[in-house]
Request: fold
Amino acid sequence: MPPPADTGGPTTFRPRLLRRAAGDPRARTAVAAGLAAGAVLFVPPLLRFGGLPVVALVVVIAWVTGKGGSPRTRLWGALGAGGITAVQFAFRAGFGSPLDAYYGYGTNRSVLSVVETPLFVGPLLGITVGGAAWLSAQPSGCGVPLRARFALVAYGGTLLAFSAVLSITSEMAEVNGGSLGWGPGQYQGELFYLAQAAAVVIGAVAWVTAGRALRPVDAIREELEDITLRSLDRRVPVPKGGDELTRLALTTNAILDRLERSTELQQQFIGDASHELRSPLAAVRASLESLLAHPKEVDWQTAVRSALHDMERMQSLSEDLLLLARLDGTAPLPRDPVNLTDLVHDLVEEHRHLRRSHPLEIRLGASGPPAWMAGSGIQLERMLRNLLSNACRYADGEVAVAVCAERHDGVETVRIDVRDDGPGIPAAARERVFERFSRLEDARARKSGGAGLGLAIAREIADHHGGTLCFTDAPQGAHAVGRLPRRMP
Reply:
């Protein structure tokens, strides 16, 4: 028969604090140590022997109730509880406890009778010892929680302020020869307990206030825990205080915006790559199926040549995708000295000897001093090759290339200009052409046989080398301008 449900009635009600204390060794240590330290004040015979038996009793109870936790946390919890108990009884012995008169051990009764009973001092001692045990029993590698730090600062600040006021007031009373009518030295025990009570109250207020102030952080954390790859459109709540928490929430939402945008671009990139690979794969498959179905009726050389062309397209696309994956990674960039002047000269000579469907003149600007920079020679060659190939693909009859060193915005740079006399790029599309798999709905797109990755790769390489690449205004055709940081070898 199952046990009765917990309906919250008087026979089944258990406060949340007690439930947590029963299941957490650290909480059990704190609660038990605090109850033991506060309860000893109701046993007058035990106080006749001073504080040593009480300290030993608190240490033993804290160690026993901490069963289930690691030996280290049990030891530190017991030592923390015993240490603060010893400090309390040392102050009690030094200042003279108002409880002495209450128990009949003293002769003078204080006028501050409110603090002369165990009902006042017991809970105060229990809270102090329990808090010390809880803080001392921190798990290994964990620091003090933020709320506890606020409470400790408030508690310690109150006690320090009380000590300063008591010291100053005592000196004033001695200087005036007792003309004040009373001296704080007469009531050191009472004032000590009152200061502790005030420190505990202010520490508790700081604890509660810090908890309320950190509620927005909990709300942000809970929202982030629920955000997955399929719910990147969700955002964390933004507090209205206009403080650091507001800026934290805004920054978190900005990061989520970038993450959502990056995920969308990645999904689009995967879809575009799959689409680009599908066409040559389908063509190769159709060609092979035709060869197998009609081996005597198909021109084998033409079919193989067509399949080889499609395989070259797939190989080129796979190499571009691999290069983009490397550029998107975190691999360190080589810092080899690269002579861009000689590199451009070699690429221009190479493109001049390529076979084309129409005559094309490639002009190289007057060469000045060698333009050097630090980076990856392979990647920089790929960037320049893509720019030059793009210009040659769309040029009507002329391409102009120039490399020079200049000072731009106070920084020494290497400027690369690549011009063609083709149809050009509309101003509104000059950034879109650098997107991956981007094609324009004009003559440039119809004449293109690429996958739309050449300019995207060139822009990525320029960015990785700390430079820029863009298209600017031109009287005719397109004009690409790249700037890379210059570095003398």
Observations:
- The mean pLDDT is 79.
